[in-house]
Structures are given as structure tokens and as C-alpha cells.
Amino acid sequence: MSYPNKPSRPAAPRRRFTRRKGCRFCGDKTLKIDYKEIRTLRYFVSERGKIVPRRISGNCAIHQRKVTEAIKRARNIALLPFTSAHNVD
How far apart are CA 34 and CA 66, in angstroms? Predict the structure, then answer.
């Protein structure tokens, strides 16, 4: 039943759903998260030295926690930098 004097609401913008990235560690069981494997951990650190969040990296919660712990351990023994080296003029 329609009402002739009822004001209509503006249509909500449609959300675009993108396909979620799968966790690379769940997909490939041979990959290990280790603080000594810097090449693997570099993917999860931004240019500024920040740890990339789950929604960007595509990791599941369990593996994101393990990656974060490995990055922090690698930083403590100077395998990874805490921040990026940038020139201050």
C-alpha cells in the first residue's frame, strides 16, 4: 500500500563488495611465521615502519597476532627497524 503524501527517503549509496583476501598462512601450510625470516615479515610492515592491519594484509586473526609478535621480536634484536630512516632537512 502506498501513501501519496509520505516523503520518500533518498536512496542509500550502494556498497561495493570486494573479494576478501585469504590468509596466506592458512592457504599455504608450508609457510612459517618466524622472526628470523625478514623477507616474509617485510610484506607486513609499511614504508614508515608500521605494522600493516589485518584488513589490508588479509591475514586471519590468529596469524596476524603471530606476525605482529614476530615483527616485534625482529625489531628488538635489530633485524627490522622501528621506523623508517628519512632525511630531516
Answer: 9
73: three-class secondary structure by DSSP? helix
How many folded domains does the chain comprise? 1
Please give the DSSP secondary-structure letter assigned to residue 30: T
Write the single-letter amino acid at 20.
R
In 3D space, the residue among 62, 81, 61 whose CA is nearest the CA of residue 71 turns out to be 81
- The CATH number of whichever domain residue 64 belongs to comes to 4.10.640.10
- CB-count exposure of residue 54 (10 Å: 0-12, 13-18, 19+): middle
The answer to whether position 13 is within a domain reads: no
> Over the stretch 19-43, which tens digit does the pLDDT of each residue have?
767 899 999 999 999 999 999 999 9
Q: How many angstroms separate the CA atoms of 28 and 32, rounded?
A: 9
Q: Classify residue 62: in a domain, yes or no.
A: yes
